[in-house]
């Protein structure tokens, strides 16, 4: 008889089905309800988990609108980590987010208040990314993570207002088409090539296009 592996705490579904039909969870002595649809209830819980499980002092800081960049990043990363635990995102996604937000904190400073982040700050951050990463895909990844955090904060009432993140957009990735010889050019090359060069040309054609 095969031994079934016992689920660890992080493997279990975090919510309980209440007799009312809603999914709920007891947090700090109070039952919180997240709706009847299992998937939507989980999404709602994950979106609010860091706030609901956070200390009262942190909630007070949020209400005062004086949150620092590091505090916001820590909240968002805790939320992302909770998504990893239930399999909503991959560990690599979380690692990428943490690395990117650490760079964002290093650029503006951990004590920088969210309300003081200007459009110029964000534009300078983008220029810093452009000078640090030749890859547009990598630049866009960092910008996307930063924007996702602020969108999450506004959507879940962590912040009443967010910086002007629309002022920095992702750059378009342009894929250059590789040059390909046409039939006329290939025939011209073959007509002027010696035996060895012809063999190399035919070999290259067969490798790229199959038997010609």
Describe this protein's structure:
The chain has about 210 residues and is mainly α. The chain has 2 domains: about 15-60, no CATH class; about 60-165, Tyrosine recombinase, N-terminal domain (DNA polymerase, domain 1, Orthogonal Bundle), CATH 1.10.150.130. The protein has helices spanning about 40-55, 55-65, 70-85, 90-110, 120-130, 135-155, 185-190, 195-210, and strands at about 15, 25, 30-35. It has a 3-stranded antiparallel sheet with strand order 1-2-3, with helices on one face. A hairpin with a 2-residue loop joins strand 2 (about 25) and strand 3 (about 30-35). Helix 1 packs antiparallel against helix 3 (about 70-85), helix 3 (about 70-85) runs antiparallel to helix 4 (about 90-110) and helix 4 (about 90-110) crosses helix 6. The model is unreliable at about 5-10 (pLDDT under 50).
Give the secondary structure arrangement, pairings included.
Elements: E1 16-17, E2 23-27, E3 30-33, H1 38-53, H2 56-64, H3 69-85, H4 91-108, H5 119-132, H6 136-155, H7 183-192, H8 195-209
Antiparallel strand pairs: 1-2, 2-3
Helix pairs in contact: 1-3, 3-4, 4-6
Give the tally of structural domains. 2
- List low-confidence stretches: 4-10
Percent range of helical residues: 55-70%
| CATH class category of the largest domain | Mainly Alpha
Q: What string gives the helices and strands in order?
A: EEEHHHHHHHH
CATH superfamily of the largest domain: Tyrosine recombinase, N-terminal domain
CATH architecture heading of the largest domain: Orthogonal Bundle
CATH topology of the largest domain: DNA polymerase, domain 1
